[in-house]
Amino acid sequence: MNDSTPPYDAAGVLAGQTVVVIGGSAGMGLATARRVRAEGGQVVLTGRDPERLQQAARELQPAGTAAFDATDTDRLERFFRELSGPVDHVILTAGRPFYMPLSGMDLAEARRHFTERMTMNLAVALCSREKVRPAGTVLFIGGTGARRPAVGLSVTAAMTAALPALTANLALELAPIRVNLIAAGFVDTPLSASLLGDQLEARREELRASLPIGRVVGADDVASLATHIMCNDALTGATYDIDGGQQLLGH
Q1: Model pTM?
Q2: Contact, 36 vs 59, CB < 8 A?
């Protein structure tokens, strides 16, 4: 352990457990991996960007890493097939929303996005079922923002509606492995920054002023919820919203 490595709690709630974090090199995935390590657990990290993945690995000292695009389901299947030993939990944080109004929609691009996102979730469930221990967790990340209709959200809204149904059905099919979904509102991550560009700070200020919690939801908040779901073995088939009360507002 080098001087920059944070302390890990050998008696933490995830001590002795291993969590696969798909999309674990940045944002909510990286925050979850950090939380797992802080609670005494071990992680296996995957990410699309090899350099960013190596940086995360230097910090977290994972049990293993693999650089690939999780939408490549053949590569995803090979990753799980080659994964040594059973694991306790799998969390999928890879992917990004698709915003495009119908007036300018590229149908092929819309089909690709929806198909890749849905297939990626199904592939994780299918390929991990022989690796996750009984009562372990398969955990997906979705969103809440597209529950309210708006121009440009058709594809993302369809995915938002589909994921809770997928989660509930998989919870029955994969039992005793537990399957759950975290539905996040705006989360302050590098992905949010890339999507909003120079509008980011204005959005932060708007949320600080309007959200009932009086602050912006961060990646660490999602990580805290994710580890709670991993630890509580009474939870399965459910969707857990984390948006700071954003859905309670009129806009």
Answers
A1: 0.91
A2: no
